[in-house]
Amino acid sequence: MTNSQLSSLEVIGLADDQLVKANKYYKWSRRLPVATFALSIVSIFISNPYTYIPALLALVVQVSSWLARDKAGSLHSAGEEGRTHGLSLNALGTPAERLELNKWLSRVTPRVPSQATEPATSDYYASNAPIGLRRLCDNLQENSFWNMHQYQKTAAHYARLLWVSFGATLAMILVAIPLTSGDGNLILARILVAVLASGAALTQLGEVRSWKSAEAKSERLDIRLDSLSSLSEEELREEKLGTILAIYGDYRVTTAGAPPIPKWMYDRERDRLNDLWARRADST
User: Fold this and answer.
1) Domain count within the chain
2) Which of 2, 3, 163, 148 is nearest to 90 (CA)?
3) How far apart are CA 255 and CA 80, in angstroms?
4) Residues 210, 257: contact at Cβ < 8 Å?
5) What is the C-alpha to C-alpha distance for residues 204 and 206, in angstroms, rounded to an integer?
6) pTM for the model
7) φ/ψ (deg, to 5) at 254
8) Which side of the chain, N or C, has fewer Cβ within a 10 Å radius?
9) Contacts of 108 (CB under 8 A, 6+ apart)
């Protein structure tokens, strides 16, 4: 399938499918550490010779979580790349990187026709500007606006869960210390489960920091694009082409650097953000 056969909405539909799959793997990578923590608790209260059984099971579960996260990262990268191709195709009428789009399509297009994905809806972008740099700026700003708010909400939600995770891990370590003090043979097993539980919490901390960083970068992109909102197509071409290319590059880096927004969060915030964006567009 070549890019000449696909519209921008079909490309975005394929990209969204990759992000949906990525979210499924991210979901498992976040749920499996709960099992790791539960097995860690069990290992604390089991005496020899069975202490190492839940500890080893916790290790297996945590490794599975890391593998799921690695797979999610690959799918997320493909999804964000596709969304960027779809954005430029929608705005410019032609992909900014034709060869890269063809390579991307060869990786993500379903081999079975019955598995073909639905294109994005016709109102995916709100801009009414004709094909050109003006429409590209509008699309980038709309996406940056949405990303800024959704990254903020997602980071806040998972930060609360992170505090709970840290508290539970600390309590587990404090309980484990006196229980292991009289039995040197159990120290290694309980150190292992404490490290695994702490590692899961640190992974979540990394996600929260990524969302917060992406929120700040998206806000800066929104401000930079807002400064171009009053310029015509001719002015953008003659005076701001370099600025637009720099913003486009920064946008790609920002979206690639943070995990995707969970679908339940997107669905929850969609109507509110559509309303906020419509009111903002009406006021300009």
Assistant:
1) 1
2) 3
3) 7
4) yes
5) 5
6) 0.81
7) -65, -50
8) C
9) 14, 15, 17, 18, 78, 82
